[in-house]
Amino acid sequence: MDAVKKLQLALPQELDAAIIITEHNRRYFSGFPATDGILFVTRDRACLIMDSRYIEAAKAQAKGCEVVLLTDRVSQLRKLAKDSGVKTVGIEARELPLADFNRLRGELPDVRFDDSTALSDVITSLRMIKEPEEIECIRKAQELTDAAYEHILPYIKPGVAERDLALELEFFMRKNGASGPSFDFIVVSGEKTSMPHGVPGERRIRSGEFVTMDTGAIFGGYCSDMTRTVAVGGASSAMKHVYDTVLKAQLAAEDAIRAGERCDAVDKIARDIIYNAGYAGCFGHGLGHSVGLEIHENPRLSPSCGDKLASGMLMTVEPGIYLEGRFGVRIEDLVVVTDDGLEILTKSPKELTIL
Length: 355
Description:
Layout: H1 3-10, E1 17-20, H2 23-30, E2 38-42, E3 46-50, H3 55-61, E4 66-69, H4 73-83, E5 88-90, H5 98-107, E6 112-114, H6 118-128, H7 132-152, H8 162-175, E7 180-181, E8 186-189, E9 209-215, E10 217-219, E11 222-223, E12 226-232, H9 237-256, H10 263-279, E13 288-290, E14 297-301, E15 314-317, E16 320-323, E17 327-330, E18 333-338, E19 341-344
Parallel strand pairs: 1-5, 3-4, 5-6
Antiparallel strand pairs: 1-2, 2-3, 7-10, 8-9, 9-12, 10-11, 13-14, 15-18, 16-17, 18-19
């Protein structure tokens, strides 16, 4: 069943139609990537309005909807609403900028807009569970990410700048089939590894310190996400203890993941191991998040997320320990939730690598 049909079947009873404007949601339902456009969906019709820049490609690639050339946005939207007898429209309340919402209200003055999260909740629920073809795209994105990690290891040595490693990683991914990086890569070394979202710069790697690389590729529009931390020249006993603790926490969390488990309960397993090892307060972010067309999707493995995992969800598992001003370690895998456990898409080794 295509994504538009799923939305039509799941459209809340109080809504006659949905207007979808945001880029990733529009792509998810239509299958067509573009920076602009409007998807108008009723229970028995779906219309994708695209301007002349995209119209030819949209006609060839869009799925589950008719494609119409944008000529006069206001008159086209009003005609769609009138022809379908639309009185109440749902919007992407969580994602839609206020300016876009106000514009829609001005364009459709005779329509009532439901600005609750009803439509956003439906969209989030649908996007949480990945279809086999989505998983296959993410699998290929992760294969590129694993290959890039293997490729970069010989480059990591004293005197090499963080920024050069980040550039080489991205170049390798693009050269081998990625349409781009999933996000701005985090490639940091030494004391900068204590910053979970540190930015690669001109700092040059030194012997006896960690290098953390958080990277991912985009394939077919879908993202991958992986983090590995390696040591250069050697690792102190303190560094090894932190690394072993993070790895223990990650393995325990992965062992607990399966359909029906609560996200906060899985997070607690990893967090308790880290805190009980003497690193309370040194793991500030959540254990993981879903991945798809966007690098951060729902649900989240975090203390504040009571959602239950379901078969077909794609999740990261990325515990870390960050000792301010000293060093940090993060290890991250990408996994598919199954009824009786999980499939780990990430194949790069996790034991401490000393280069």
